[in-house]
Design goal:
The protein has 264 residues and is α+β, with helices and mostly antiparallel strands. It is built from five helices and seven strands, in the order H-E-E-E-H-H-H-E-E-E-E-H. The chain has helices at residues 12-36, 90-100, 108-129, 152-168, 224-228; strands at 62-64, 70-76, 82-88, 175-183, 192-199, 205-209, 220-223. It has one domain. Strand 1 and strand 2 form a beta hairpin. Helix 2 packs antiparallel against helix 3 (108-129) and helix 3 crosses helix 4 (152-168). It has a four-stranded antiparallel beta sheet with strand order 4-5-6-7. Strands 1-2-3 form a three-stranded antiparallel beta sheet. The chain starts with 11 loop residues before the first helix and ends in a 36-residue tail after the last helix.
């Protein structure tokens, strides 16, 4: 199965005439951003107006309130062209914690499913308060110009935010949320971003890629090194890490656990 690049398309004429120069410019730009951008930023609540597109995911912006509610920034409409501040209630967050409790095990398979459930449930909440996200589809081919669409910059931004929030709430033990990672940054037809978590037990990094499915669905997880090699989470052997049960209590049943492929 082949997909186009995860950001908005560029015309063939534009590619042919400007690709070499733009590849050099983009490489320099990404390097500057990587050096100068803060890992995390304070919340800035601004009007919900369209903004210039971003070439890299945004740093998480959120606040966990004393009453257990969470205020967070969400971005969508391709490369975070639009942002909104949402509030998840304390009751919302308790429901998410209840779903995560179905995978309490310390083995890697259970911990990976906990990460997947976390993203899934937070995306469902986001759509509850921003119904326009129901327009999002897998990849980009079916949603050009649609309000509420999300490319890989949007997905990596939002997924990182969700994971950071739940990590701060102590719901992702033994995982550390890392900055998003990119593959093939010099190629307009192949550049792709993903959220990343690091296993504090082994030190291995894992891609948490939510772009291949619509909002409100389970992301794919696979070793970051394999993701960089363009391996797919729905193709063996990594499909064993990415089941799609109907309910959360089926994720970590003894007979449902898959063998963990090598992350090397």
């Amino acid at each position: 199965m082949q997909f186009r690049n995860c950001t908005e398309p560029v015309s063939d004429v534009f590619r042919k005439r400007t690709l070499p120069a733009l590849q050099i410019f983009l490489a320099l730009f990404v390097m500057v951003i990587a050096v100068t951008a803060p890992a995390h930023a304070d919340i800035v609540i601004s009007p919900n107006t369209p903004k210039p597109p971003n070439t890299t995911p945004l740093a998480p912006q959120y606040r966990i309130e004393a009453d257990g509610s969470v205020v967070l920034r969400l971005c969508f409409n391709s490369s975070c062209a639009r942002t909104e501040m949402l509030t998840f209630s304390a009751a919302d967050m308790e429901k998410v914690k209840g779903q995560l409790a179905y995978c309490p095990g310390e083995i890697l398979y259970d911990r990976l499913q906990r990460v997947r459930i976390a993203v899934w449930q937070m995306e469902v909440l986001a759509q509850k308060y921003a119904p326009v996200l129901a327009n999002d589809r897998e990849v980009n081919d079916r949603e050009y110009g649609v309000d509420g669409r999300m490319d890989c910059v949007d997905n990596a931004s939002n997924t990182s935010t969700y994971l950071m929030i739940l990590s701060d709430l102590g719901q992702l033990p033994s995982w550390r949320v890392e900055e998003p990672s990119v593959r093939k940054p010099l190629y307009f037809n192949a550049v792709h971003w993903t959220a990343v978590v690091q296993d504090e037990v082994t030190g291995d990094k894992w891609a948490v890629d939510s772009w291949y499915r619509p909002n409100g669905h389970l992301p794919f997880v696979l070793p970051l090194k394999k993701w960089k090699d363009e391996k797919k989470g729905w193709v063996p052997p990594y499909d064993r890490l990415n089941p799609n049960p109907r309910v959360s209590n089926e994720f970590c049943l003894e007979n449902a656990r898959g063998q963990i492929p090598s992350s090397r």
